[in-house]
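Why Histidine kinase? Reviewers of the renewal asked for a concrete example.
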Amino acid sequence: MNNKHMDKILIVDDNQAVLQSLSLLFELHDYEVVLASCPFEAEQIVRYQRIALVIQDMNFTADTTSGEEGKALFFRLRELSPNLPIILLTAWTELEMAISLVKAGAADYLAKPWNDDKLLVAVANLIALGKANSDNQQLQRQQVERETYSADAELVGLIYESVAMQRAVEMALQVAKSDVSVLITGANGSGKEKIAQIIQANSKLVNQPFIKVNAGALPDNLIEAELFGAEAGAYTGANKKRIGRFEAADNGTLFLDEIGNLPLSGQMKLLRVLQTGEFERLGSVDTQRVNVRVISATNANLLNDVAAGKFREDLFYRLNVIEIHLPSLAQRVDDILPLVRHFLPGRALSLEAERALCAHSWPGNVRELENACKRAGVLKPEGELQAQDFGLIDNVTVQPTNPLAVEPSKLELQQAMHQCQGVIAKVARQFGMSRQALYRRLQKHGIDY
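Here is what the prediction returned.
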């Protein structure tokens, strides 16, 4: 393995020469660097990645020297991460504003052109101080968790380091002690079942049945029988009475995966059992009564399905008492290498491989990453793993901007973001533009992801 710092520095500047210069400086001193050319892109990076320190410019629009853009970005980043150290890069014209922002909590400011040695010392000191504060906060958070949940919360082997997944886990532990219905949303392979298992494992029903049903894997004509059971002869091939999953989960928890695939007839029965605890098996008039906590999951936009008449609105609000959303793996870059180390314990990665893994869009999320690791382990059982061992060599190079690309409309951008599940790399390739260019257009149209 290389000797790079685990600390990740975000540099925000619209001047490519500044980005390249600072990136080279910090990479030569073994820091990991993330670059952003506009405030919108910087916000998304801080939202989904674990950043140790930010170095930001004060202006991002040509011929602008007021520093108001940098001020707005500073307060937005502080809102997203209150303890994040931020160093301001300022010209003499914005010096007064930079000083006011230091009084408001900025870590430091440096006038352009900066002194490399002074900047490196400031960064090292701020990151060390941030680690000390983080350690204290972690101890305090662990104490609160012990008092709030239990001595040792059960995380069912979930591997993560990202802020986004940490928030999802904290919410899962919070709702675990209640009996409310929970809807877990996110793309296929993002970890929805793991979150459901965490809720069950930390609930008062931990020793009761935990029954899983994947509605997306069952034909429409069998879903109702699977959930509610059926009497012998209720349908072709039903030669004996069948106990449904609700009966099997009585006094426990039922996890309904891909709930959006449930047909309307099954939705009506599901709503009834959630409201009253009552249902009938197919082919029977005898009413069954159960006490079941329901956790559901979907990769679909159920509100869109409600608007299209494909999903009952009353059922949606019954299931969605609390929603836990899991971002895609591409939005949780900090989880990628820890997962690789879990899937390939003891294996060394080249820097090229690390960069390729972190740059890949992972449309199949954690499942795709696990398969890529299995591939690498089989094809190269010994030695340092390279990017090509994972089949990701094409992701090392950045796609060039297409000079003939047509400027997409707001509607086209929204449709592409929906189709690509918010994966910026895929949307950018679709329109033949760089990620930075796409970020600028998303910002222009007020589209978040």
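The mean pLDDT is 81. This is the kind of structural detail the renewal will allow us to pursue systematically.
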